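One such shown below:

_____
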Amino acid sequence: LQLNHSGRYSCGGWVDSKVAPWALSAPVTVTVHGVPLSGVSLLVQPPGGQVALGDRLVLSCTVATGTGPLSFSWHREGSGAPLGTGPHLELWHAGDKDSSQYQCRVSDGNSMADSVPLNVTILGDQDPRANGDP
């Protein structure tokens, strides 16, 4: 159901009667109520939010309840512009700058709900000079 399905409904049909071969029921009012957004959460592949440098990372946003249509936006800590606008965010070649907290924001046109931030760590080969080695 969608919110725009609210209205008055009746049904009609042919009956076996010579007096009234077509009969129409009394109308009924149907009201569709919106369900507030809740339970916005993130799933990550690979599990745990740790991915090797250059590998693929997939974040998925799920909504437990909410009346659609829903719109999604992805945000990274410290970045103003959204990273994506669908229910999934894919980083095909994760780089060291992709280590951060990620969050999904869902809107139903009337309200918004955010997921809990998810920490993503990009695991890469450490430069030996970073440890003071020559």
About this structure: The CA atoms of residues 48 and 120 lie 8 Å apart. DSSP finds no helices and twelve strands in the chain. The radius of gyration is 26 Å. The chain has two domains: 1-33, 38-123.
